[in-house]
């Protein structure tokens, strides 16, 4: 393993959507990239398998370590071993609905996890060497106090996830001010891609509609279709994470597109991409979406309603535009198209698998 003259980055959450795109991006920039993965009973490295390098290679530039955000001993050990120039703290229990079911674990990994990394940097005497990026979120705005939301908009978190992320946000600011560390928050609005987890609403929609199109699934069950989000492409957003760590001074930035669509609009655009039109009937929990043949393909399941909902988010990325040169490269239409086409490809593979007598995975969440 060589790190001589090369910048060294450590990514927590490297097996997640953003971790995978960021690892690719940093490797292309010539970094040595270390990632933390947690121990699971099945492989969890699908998103980074294409980056895998045999540990026996001498010039290894992509290295995975076992660790966990809830385990300081592993974090201190890895940071000491890696001596990173940059740490990207992307690991989190990142599902808002799940945070209502696992609030304590969410606080442990998402709030205290950030503290553990910052403390490790300090205890190891790396506060002048190691720059720190915290994956903050538009969920901090929750019950919105201003439209659109920018860096100065007051926070009003609406879930255990958002409250945990609020702690992480402020502890990052505090360590910057208290110890002069280069530590910053990227307040990122929703960003999606074909690598998005299947239980987030965009991927759930593109995956289900592709399967419905091929007859592998009957209906897509959703919660609040009135919710509005500012959706961008993850690949564009990870570049901003890196740029935030390349400035003269550490600052916090909103990254967003400045455009907003509802969940219902997302469904309509994704369906159109598959040559389907959705006709809506009914209201509230009785609302249903029908295809051209009058078959019900979308229905509401109140199980997916959240105890407290974030109804609308719209970002104002002016500061990032001015200071980081931010412009989203991918339009909303292109994002939906890319996700639908990739899920159609996967559904076609599943169709083939089924035809040969193997059962196609059909888990709904
Ligand atoms: P994902 O859910 O796709 O990835 C989360 C990553 O964290 C996975 O690698 C996961 O591991 C890992 N992880 C979870 N818990 C632990 C733990 N206890 N110890 C170690 N690793 C853990 O999230 P995204 O890539 O979408 O998001 C990245 C970060 O950005 C998250 O912190 C998220 O909260 C935040 N964020 C995301 C936005 C988005 O729209 N995507 C917007 C704003 C903020 P495994 O693969 O094993 O599950
Ligand atoms: P979000 O994303 O909560 O914004 O958090 P998600 O895609 O889960 O929900 C977006 C909106 O869609 C509504 N919705 C549903 N959501 C899911 N998951 N499943 C459904 O069936 C469904 N039906 C309607 C939700 O109620 C919500 O209003 C994401 C995560 O990546 C966070 O980690 C990140 O911080 C924020 O984005 C910014």
TrEMBL record:
Catalyzes the conversion of GDP-D-mannose to GDP-4-dehydro-6-deoxy-D-mannose. Signal peptide: none annotated. The gene is gmd. One of its GO terms (molecular function) is NADP+ binding. InterPro entries: GDP_Man_deHydtase (IPR006368), NAD(P)-bd_dom (IPR016040), NAD(P)-bd_dom_sf (IPR036291). The keyword Lyase applies. This is GDP-mannose 4,6-dehydratase. GO terms for biological process: 'de novo' GDP-L-fucose biosynthetic process. It catalyses: GDP-alpha-D-mannose = GDP-4-dehydro-alpha-D-rhamnose + H2O. Residues 10-339 form the NAD(P)-binding domain. Belongs to the NAD(P)-dependent epimerase/dehydratase family. GDP-mannose 4,6-dehydratase subfamily. Keywords: Lyase, NADP. Its cofactor is NADP(+). It is an enzyme of class 4 (lyase). The keyword Transferase does not apply. PANTHER family: GDP-MANNOSE 4,6 DEHYDRATASE (PTHR43715:SF1), GDP-MANNOSE 4,6-DEHYDRATASE (PTHR43715). Its EC number is 4.2.1.47. It comes from Leucothrix pacifica.
